[in-house]
Amino acid sequence: MSVWVMRIGHRPQRDKRVTTHVLLAARALGASGAFVDTRDEVLEENVRSVSERFGGGFSVKTGVRWEDVAKSFEGRVVHLTMYGQRLEEGLSKISEGEDLLIVVGAEKVPFEVYERADLNISVGNQPHSEIAALAIFMDRLTAGSALYSDRGGKMTVIPEERGKRVEERDP
Amino acid sequence: MSVWVMRIGHRPQRDKRVTTHVLLAARALGASGAFVDTRDEVLEENVRSVSERFGGGFSVKTGVRWEDVAKSFEGRVVHLTMYGQRLEEGLSKISEGEDLLIVVGAEKVPFEVYERADLNISVGNQPHSEIAALAIFMDRLTAGSALYSDRGGKMTVIPEERGKRVEERDP
């Protein structure tokens, strides 16, 4: 299974921190890469810099239309929305090993996304956060398997009860 | 069990959207309320407005020091950090029914927080997002029970495979 995230409605100035959180959460939780609909070189650079230090391959491409990404994607398109079907129900429709493109909107999501998505899935029916929704969806999807996986990075954080422990490896 | 969130390092201008996500995710996932260390009336108003429409009691208090909140809190203080012990290990140390104060930092967290916390817990050992970390922690803690709970709000979203369905009730 490979999972990709498509972030739509990104406005570089207003959303820079929120979209960075979306992409870093996607990476940490095991996604292969992310697409963002508005060109944003600073965002690309920030996320790449994390991958360079902490390892793993995570591709970032900005300035791509969701319609184009969805059209050429060979797998299922999942749209996360507070209006969608229940999480357990949606997850039960996804087969093991299936490739997924997860569409994550900002404030206003065009109705075409609801129509194009193979599955509209909610992570709770309350207004909250697309970052939180993506995180829970991916944690459930992967049964937490990505959380402590070895990324072979130059820097690796070693879990500790108190304090900070970071191992550095030669590249 | 009641769960409270303490957001530290909040800078109203820079963090307004990220802290709003923290608080709305906390609310959606079943927390009783949140504290924020910097006074921010706009944030308070935004979160209260969601509660007024979508129901439930969720208290928000800004401009309170984490040291003071932690001192008077009768329960366990959990600090979420990428450096902390593994999630499953941390969760196994929490007893059912125990009240929790979950401390969620912004970029730099003072070392005193690591020392004061009863548990420093990581949600993966990769840099990502405090919103994502809080969401997964709470989803695991509550076994997803808050996601579709009835809040008795004026507005209730009914899960749907496609489109948006909202029921409005008389107050």
Care to describe what's here?
The structure is a homodimer of 171-residue chains. With 171 residues, chain A is an alpha/beta fold. Chain A has a single domain (3-168), classed as SPOUT methyltransferase, trefoil knot domain (Alpha/beta knot), CATH 3.40.1280. In chain A, 37% of the residues lie in helices and 22% in strands. Chain A contains six helices and eight strands; from the N terminus they run βαβαβαβαβαβαββ. The first copy, chain A, has helices at 12-28, 41-54, 66-72, 87-92, 111-116, 130-142, and strands at 3-7, 33-36, 59-62, 76-85, 100-104, 119-121, 155-157, 166-168. Chain A has a six-stranded parallel β-sheet with strand order 3-2-1-5-4-6, with helices on both faces. A two-stranded antiparallel sheet of chain A has the order 7-8. In chain A, β4, α4 (87-92) and β5 (100-104) form a beta-alpha-beta unit. In chain A, α1 packs parallel to α2 and α1 runs parallel beside α6 (130-142). The longest helix of chain A has 17 residues, at 12-28. The first copy, chain A, is globular. Chain A starts with a strand and ends with a strand. The mean pLDDT of chain A is 96. The interface between A and B is large, with 57 and 56 residues.
